[in-house]
Amino acid sequence: MTANFANARPASSGAGPREMPAARRRFSRPRFALLVLAGVYPLITALLYLVLPLLDGWSIWQETLVIAPIMVSIMVWGLIPAVQRRFHGFLNPVAA
Length: 96
What we know:
With 96 residues, the chain is mostly helical. The chain has a domain at 36-91. It is built from 3 helices and no strands. The longest helix is centred in the C-terminal third of the chain and has 27 residues, at 60-86. It has helices spanning 29-51, 60-86, 88-91.
């Protein structure tokens, strides 16, 4: 029978520096909502300026049917990942 030492840790002599526990962080939904709103507002405004002239004469439900999938796609694959990457520290403050 062979011993598996791959996960074994060396014994601590107590002479080395103490390891500080990692700070607990808590995801802040209000901060996330604020940042998403700050990104969605200019995005939807620009999208309306670009798409609505092409849909002149369409009913509001038809316009929404065209704009909503574009908006959701941009948010899911662009805006939300960018907000989470860029503002990681702001969105995950140290819990008190």
